[in-house]
C-alpha cells in the first residue's frame, strides 16, 4: 500500500516595502494567527519573498506561485480557508 505525502500549500508573502506598507505588515500576522488557531502549520508553507514587481497592485501574496492582491482581512481569511482542503 502506497502512502501519499500531502502537498503543502505554498504561501509567499511579499515583504517588499510597497506591499509591506500597503498591508502585508498586518497580513503576515493575520496569516500566522489563522494558521495557529486552525492548527494548519503542517498544511501551509509560509515564506517571505522580495518584491515581485507588482507593487501598484499590492499588497501581494502568492499562493502556489499565483500572485493575488489581498483586498481585505476577510479576503485573506477566505483565501486561507479555500486552500485549507
Ligand atoms: S513590493 Fe510587493 S510587488 Fe513590489
Model description:
- The structure is a single chain.
- This protein has one domain (10-82): 3-Layer(aba) Sandwich (Glutaredoxin).
- Helices cover 36% and strands 24% of the residues.
- The chain has helices at residues 17-37, 73-82; strands at 9-14, 44-49, 60-63, 66-69.
- A hairpin with a 2-residue loop joins strand 3 and strand 4.
- The radius of gyration is 13 Å and the shape is globular.
- The relative contact order is 0.26.
- The model has no long low-confidence stretch (mean pLDDT 93).
Topology:
Elements: E1 9-14, H1 17-37, E2 44-49, E3 60-63, E4 66-69, H2 73-82
Parallel strand pairs: 1-2
Antiparallel strand pairs: 1-3, 3-4
The protein binds FE2/S2 (inorganic) cluster.
**Can you tell me the CATH architecture?**
3-Layer(aba) Sandwich
CATH topology value: Glutaredoxin
Strand order of the largest sheet: 2-1-3-4
By CATH reckoning, the class would read: Alpha Beta
CATH homology-level superfamily: Glutaredoxin
Give the termini distance in whole angstroms. 23 Å
Total count of helical runs of at least 4 residues: 2
Specify Rg, calculated over alpha carbons. 13 Å
Strand content: 15-25%
Amino acid at each position: 500500500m502506497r502512502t501519499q505525502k500531502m502537498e503543502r500549500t505554498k504561501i509567499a508573502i511579499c515583504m517588499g516595502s510597497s506591499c509591506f506598507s500597503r498591508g502585508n505588515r498586518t497580513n503576515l500576522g493575520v496569516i500566522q494567527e489563522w494558521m495557529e488557531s486552525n492548527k494548519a502549520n503542517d498544511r501551509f508553507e509560509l515564506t517571505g519573498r522580495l518584491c515581485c514587481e507588482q507593487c501598484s497592485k499590492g499588497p501581494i501574496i502568492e499562493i502556489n506561485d499565483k500572485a493575488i492582491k489581498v483586498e481585505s482581512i476577510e479576503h485573506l481569511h477566505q483565501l486561507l480557508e479555500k486552500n485549507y482542503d
